[in-house]
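Please, structure for the following, as tokens.
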Amino acid sequence: MPSFNIPKKSLIVAAKEYIAITLGLIIYAFGWAFFLLPYKLVSGGTAGIGAIIEYATGFPMQYTYFLINIILLGIAVKELGIKFCLKTIYAVFTLTFFLGVMKDLLDKYQFNALNILGEGATFEACIIGAGFCGLGIAMNFINNGSTGGTDIIAAIINKYRDISLGRVIMYIDIATVLSCSIVLGSDEIAKVFYGLITLLISSTMLDYVVNSNRRLVQFLIFSKKYDEISHYITKEMHRGVTLLNGIGYYTKEDTKVIVTMMRGNESNEMFRIIHEIDPNAFISQTRVSGVYGAGFDKIKVKK
């Protein structure tokens, strides 16, 4: 194999991923601290369990969230890989910090949805808060991170089964929401219905954002430096490459056409590396409805 001077994935790209994860965690924490907690609304996941315990005992939700996730991180290491685990560890510690800081800050200045919208705006707070939470979780998933908890379980199931992330999380979290009627008592039964609405909205937002970002694309690349570009795609991006023989009609010259498939969120890196290797390359990008095989979705059929 010839030696090529191929640029590696820059620290700037990795930094952007962590910045996006951090922003998602801030959005998620804001959704809880500003909208859900003031109205004592519940949701799923370890954050939802922490909220229920806080309503019942006063024990801060962020500590319950942290303790449960320490256990679940052991599963993430084995099933989802070290890269996913590292970002999940970062997310768990960071979200614990932001939940605590944001709660204290908003309580100190009495700045939350309850004081602004009033006691009669529970439904509005439920909808908006759920939207913020769903967006925050989605921003973590599309950057190969996680907020922990049921996100870890959902990611593992999604790895082996053709079930959307939002749907898996919704199924698992329904049990958490229903449990609030036992912990909080029959007087708080309305919280169950608000909690189910929160789950529906947050999972819908999650699916919308993640599926929009994880679309599949096909590249046709025409370049005299096809060998260098193909080497990078296979060795650095770990995607398959097929070379097609072609003839330029006008020039009558033989040429090679690179054909490769990848996810939409990998397109920026693809364009970046092609531009660095061969700024004169001709590129065609097409969206495809599905790609099945090694590195993509498994062909799943009922026997």
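The chain has a mean pLDDT of 84. The beta strands are 216-222, 242-247, 254-263, 282-288.
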